[in-house]
Amino acid sequence: MAPYFLRNIVPRRETRAGARPLLTVLRELTWVQWALFFSGWLAWTCDSIDFFSVSLSVTHLQTQFNRDTHDITTAITLTLLFRSVGAAIFGILSDRYGRKWPLIWNLILVAILELGAGFVQTFRQFLALRSLFGIGMGGIWGLAASTALENLPVEARGIASGFLQEGYAVGYLIAAVINLFLVPEVSASWRSLFWTASGISLFAAFIRMLLPESEVFLRAKAADMASGRDTSKKTKIFIHETKEMLKRHWLLCIYSVLLMTGFNFLSHGSQDLYPTYLTASKGFTSHDATVATIIGNCVSVGGVFAGWLSQYIGRRLTIVIHLLLIGAFIPLWILPSTFSALSAGAFCIQFGVQGAWGVIPIQLAEMSPPAFRATFPGVAYQLGNMVSSASAQIEATGGDNLRTTIIKNGTPTDVPDYATIRRNHGSHFEKAKTAFEEGGGRGEMVQNEANDGIRRESDSESGDEKRGSIIEAEKAVNSI
Fold this sequence. Notes:
Elements: H1 4-9, H2 22-28, H3 31-55, H4 58-65, H5 69-97, H6 100-117, H7 123-149, H8 157-181, H9 191-210, H10 215-227, H11 234-271, H12 274-280, H13 286-296, H14 300-313, H15 315-334, H16 339-358, H17 360-367, H18 375-387, H19 391-401, E1 403-408, E2 411-416, H20 449-460, H21 463-479
Antiparallel strand pairs: 1-2
Helix pairs in contact: 3-6, 3-7, 3-8, 3-9, 5-6, 5-7, 5-18, 5-19, 6-7, 6-9, 7-18, 8-13, 8-14, 8-16, 11-16, 11-18, 12-13, 13-16, 14-15, 14-16, 15-16
């Protein structure tokens, strides 16, 4: 029998007892199920618009606050750091009190903070708003995923997961379009992007307000009332069951956080500073960089396809296939210098990124302890975000220290090189000092004093003297 890990990576159709054809399932969905799915998708799309408002405004923010790229990306880092706090707060409220109102208040909070970010006058004010904003954003994903997926039949959850996650790409796309067409045309400039994002979040809150509570949560509440149990002790029971879940599933919690750490490095590393990379390292105009970003994010089909595929060959194998596609397309993503080639590279990379991510909502939902479908995925996701929060600053620091030269307006120009990794190909490490020698920690090389002495001496001699020295050296060797 083949080893366990080999049997798990072989593509195979999953056995689903009594599974119905996907089109049949979709035709049988009620308007409430469709509306709840759309509401969750829209909330997640708003999260993306709000987050990438900073990424797309880096150049404007540098001018506004007179700061470099590294300083501006601090706002991205702080937002990601505080998202785990929001995930815990709103996830617990959702699992305890229901899906509807925690998500509504979450979206309203996000809208208020996004609106305020458009009015700040100092860099410190901006950082403070984005830190608080991270708490609001942190709650969105877990609540949006549970709202969108838990009311759907099992057969539809794979493709629904892909559609849901593609809300992030759509959000990036909407933000890029606003940045391209609205921001340059209004006196408010970059602030108009934040204000528009705020309005869209309020619209999402209004849509959720019109819809009923999740059917799953209503059934649980009805069962409690029918049993005649004392509902005054619900919070105490909830806290007790949370402790029991952590005791029983602590290893799963660690695995989920590590998984989402890798995924968040993948997404933020390929998206957050990509417009800056195109303008700073490739010499693109802000307009062309934004258009390339839009092209790169026209890949909603990637996540949808991956979600559908995962229903048949499994979640994990689908993720691995798309990660391999990313690795194959990295050269096309960074090596060219033309607009068309780099745009094609961005499209291919994001097809892999969005495809791998398209499986994550249902992967985390299925992995989660059933009673904690809002808290567990949200906290795991945002703790991974917290670990990867410095990805934009890491890239910015790399660009500051790794430089390249491009021809800009006919003149060689030194620019940050965001696409290069530090390497030392062909290094003569055998000549380096060891750890117990002075200078070893600084990477100093061992000098061959005899050879160096002869070389220095020969360099100072005239041509005749050098020839004489060589003859004398040959005689010495022959005599030996």
